[in-house]
Amino acid sequence: MNAREAILAKIKSQVKDGGDDTQRRAAVANRLSSAPKGVIPERGQVTAKKRADLFCQKAEAVQSTVKRVTSYTEISAAISDYLRQKNLPQKIRLGEDERFDAIDWSATPNLTRDVGPTDGSDPVGVSHAHGGVAETGTLLMTSGAANPTTLNFLPENHIIVVKAKDIEGNYEAALARIRDDHGKGRMPRTVNMITGPSRSGDIEQKILLGAHGPRSLHVIVVDG
Amino acid sequence: MKITTPEFKSNAVEALANENLQKAMGHVQSGFIEKRQIVADGLPEFEALRDNAREIKNHTLAHLDLYLEAYSEKVEESGGHVHWAQTAEDARNIVLNICRKADAKTVTKGKSMISEEIGINDFLEEKGIAPIETDLGEYIIQLRGEAPSHIIAPAVHVLKEQVEEDFRAEHTHLSEKRNLEEPESLLDEARTVLRQKFIDADVGITGANFLVAETGTSVIVTNEGNGDLTQTLPKVHIVLASIEKITPTLEDVSQILRVLARSATGQEMSVYTTFSTGPRREQDVDGPEEYHVILLDNGRTNMIGTEFQEMLRCIRCGACMNHCPVYHAVGGHAYGWVYPGPMGAVLTPSLEGVEKGGNLPNASTFCGRCESVCPMRIPLPKMMRHWREREFERGLNPATQRWGLKFWAWFAKRPTLYAFGARLAMRFMAIMAGKNGKLRSLPLAAGWTKYRDMPAPEGSTFQQQWRSRGGSTQ
Asked: I need a surface site. Which of A71, A124, B5, B268 has the fewest CB within 10 A?
């Protein structure tokens, strides 16, 4: 008997009612297919209209900074302004996400762009979120050439663009959107839920920002 | 790692006399408890979520074999490999084989308690592969050659001055004159030193907070981002996880996430919650080329179907130790193995045997705070009591204790004699104590009276008071 069989057989012999599998198998199949939702906090059931507001409030509470714009055409100026305020070079790296094509880059001729995954030498990464979660100001990032995962972690400063209409109230709804895109039981290679800039409390329990991931997280919410 | 749990008593005495440790442990009492209370109070559904989290895990454990089958099928479907390990030794060898195949020189590590449980660092070093801890707390204790003293804050016993000393001793390529007084500068230095190691590593090892049966996904929950760099940059990603990490669906994970960070660090949500499914896909431009999951049993299947099964609901948040007066007093190292505090007092005898771990369930005042804050509602005091009973049954506790208990039991079964004896002892103690009502020493209780006086009983016995208030005496 190999290790897999031994472990599974041991569990089966120890669990109560392990003898007849029919009912147990039905219970498992049922839970996996129906995926019951459980307890959704009231704050996670916020109406579509108020979701972006709660999201911004919660994001700022965990030291993210937030800028709201009304269309993609305003994004390049928003990025350029942010870099200027933080005394950062007018230089960003981003993925191949088609949604970035709607950005009017000609409005900021001094802002240079590199495309593709980062090797760690880029000070600023820009990514597009798959969605957001209002209840905790959380962003969901999916891996791929459109938004390489390395951009979420290596640059010291991370700017994330999210559409207001992609912000859901709760985690369950945000993950269900990924399930809708990829099919039941399938996931992108990586989904990063990000809630604020990186931090550590490992030295005398004092929380400090900028551990191994980005020191700053700036979120641009596109309303409309 | 060598288990020193049988020496708990002498470990505790040393810990109480250790000034640095006592100073550092003050941060636990002041930090964690208040933060947890604030976020728990801030979510009206918190208690209902705890109930549901308990139900999710109870259901999962009752069907664990079937969920493990479903999970492993999904991992293989996404191009990952599943390895099954019955013992710590099996798990170590599986890790080594994967590292050798990848021709690995260095391995970066995200925080993983399973990696501590199987002692992977020492093992890899012996085999000529350098393991590098990347979580700040784990990095600090690796430099110090210590084990973690807390399951989520491994260096909670270390003061910042000690970290400075360790960094100066290790990072000799940096200027001796640099200022490292503030925690900020220590964090910056660790960030810079470790950044290159992330990029150079051949294999990355992480733990898992959840394994999702529905999708074949492993989930890590972190704040620093080190776990993500560990699993994204090297060619090979190894996930070390024990079998009870299985959670049926993404919805079930979402439910437990809401109680995890709140109970652990007092955050509403940790900074990074990362879902990983298989290796790099065709359209990906980064990520690992190989994805392995090692499923460890190491004694857990023995707990299923027993009075200790509920312990397998544990999600390793650390709330029980953050609220434990014994843990506050002695710190994590005194417990002598990987898991300290109340959860360690139940888990250590379960995994390592009551012969080695029997001291720990006795290191409790049964105040019940651990159970009252456990997000998974694990009845920790009840299970410690079960272990005390087992210890007694097997005759493992000292002869004086056994005789004392037998002596007491003999009396307790004879109510008239017991009442008479109690009255007599009370009067005797009151006389001995004299005017100030305190006894400076007591026969057979020198260990207690050495550090404090025993107040003499006043008034009448409990039974007398019970009767005089009209209590039933059947």
From this structure: A71
Which helix (H) or strand (E) segment holds residue B357: the answer is helix B354-357
Count of beta carbons in the 10 Å neighbourhood of residue A212: 27
**Which backbone phi and psi does B123 adopt, to 5 degrees?**
-65, -50
* CA-closest candidate to residue B260, choices B217, B319, B341: B319
Q: What pTM did the predictor assign?
A: 0.94
Q: How many CB atoms lie within 10 A of CB A155?
A: 24
Cα–Cα distance between A126 and A162 in angstroms, integer?
11
At B438 the pLDDT is 85
Query: Looking at residue B73, what DSSP letter applies?
Result: H
Q: What is the pLDDT of residues B113-135, one digit of tens each?
A: 999 999 999 999 999 999 999 99
Which 3 state secondary structure label does DSSP give B249? coil
Residues 430-469, chain B, touching A (beta carbon < 8 A):
none
pLDDT for A19 beyond 70: no
Specify whether the CB–CB gap between B430 and B459 falls below 8 A.
Answer: no
From residue B7, give the alpha-carbon distance in Å to each of B3, B209, B359, B360, B442. 9, 31, 8, 10, 26
Q: How far is A29 from chain B (nearest CA, A)?
A: 9
**Tokens representing residue B183 in the block:** 């925690």
Residue contact A14–B301, C-beta within 8 A: yes
Which of these, A139, A142, A213, lies nearest to B286 by C-alpha position? Answer: A142
Q: Is B38 on the interface with A (CB under 8 A)?
A: no
Distance from the A175 Cα atom to the nearest Cα atom in chain B, whole angstroms: 7
Nearest to B338, CA basis, from B132, B131, B166, B120: B120
**Tokens 């505790």, residue?**
B12
The whole-angstrom separation of Cα B232 and Cα B108 is 11
Query: How confident is the model at residue B474, as a pLDDT?
Result: 61
**ipTM of this complex:** 0.97
- Give CA–CA dist A211/A47, Å, rounded: 35
Mean pLDDT on A19-23: 82
Q: B386, B349 in Cβ contact below 8 A? A: no
Overall average pLDDT of the A61-82 stretch: 98
Q: What's the Rg (C-alpha) of chain A? A: 21
* Single-letter residue type at A184: K
Closest CA to A189 of B76, B278, B81, B74: B278
Q: Tell me what percent of the residues of chain A surpass a pLDDT of 90.
A: 94
Q: From residue B467, give the alpha-carbon distance in Å to each of A115, B370, B415, B460.
A: 85, 35, 14, 11
Residues of A with Cβ-Cβ distance to B268 under 8 angstroms: 58, 62, 135-136, 195
Amino acid at site B438 = K
pLDDT tens digits, B214-223? 999 999 999 9
User: Tokens 């999201």 appear where?
Assistant: A55
Question: What pLDDT is recorded for position A198?
Answer: 98
Low-confidence ranges of chain B (pLDDT < 50): none
Res B339: pLDDT: 97
Mapping DSSP to helix (H, G, I), strand (E, B) and coil, where does residue B440 land? coil
From first CA to last CA, the distance across chain B in angstroms is 54
Contact between B300 and B346 under an 8 Å Cβ cutoff? The reply is: no
